[in-house]
Amino acid sequence: MFTKMKNIDSAFKYVRSFTMIVIAGCVVICCFALYKSFQTVARMQDKVYILAAGKALEAYASDRKDNIPVEARDHVKTFHKFFFTLDPDDKVIKTNVTKALYLADESAKRIYDDLRENGFYSGVISGNISQTVQIDSINIDIKDYPYRFKCFARQNIIRTTSILKRSLITEGSLRNVSRSDNNPHGFLIERFNTIENKDLGVENRK
């Protein structure tokens, strides 16, 4: 009888040990499955699909810190394009300057107000002058915040009989702000200043 009880006790211990191992295995498998699921969801959130011409194109999201130099340079470039591109049309000038002023603070607004008060834009319109800007390079220092920048560009001032070529060097700093339709990069140019804006030469138009 004692032998029988020993066998039953041994069998019970064996069943209990086996059950514990099975439960532990199930817990490990469930935890692993949850971990892989969260990992997959996180990986999928980094993917963006864009529909273009009936085709789904895959794009990848990334942290902003990885894109600061690229976005900062494009922000500065966009501001200069809008602020310094002029045509002899009051509506065009106002539209471009308005877009530019969304990207900068009062330092740029002050320059615009001074030019307007001095009759610069009226002279552009009355003289049928167009002005274009070509960006040569933009240096961004992201070691310190706000990020300092220096922009090197060239201007073409197109008159009826000639094209005046000028060099343009500007500087300023970039502060982080909320992104919007008017400011998609989420930067604001501060302490904007023109370092150099001198004539390089005149080309006669044919």
Automatic annotation (TrEMBL):
Protein keywords: Membrane, Transmembrane, Transmembrane helix
Domain of life assignment: Bacteria
InterPro entries referenced in this protein's UniProt entry, alphabetically: Conjug_transposon_TraK
Transmembrane segments: 14-35
Presence of the UniProt keyword Transmembrane helix in the record: yes
Keyword Transmembrane helix appears in the UniProt entry: yes
NCBIfam families named in the record: Bac_Flav_CT_K (TIGR03781)
Protein name: Conjugative transposon protein TraK
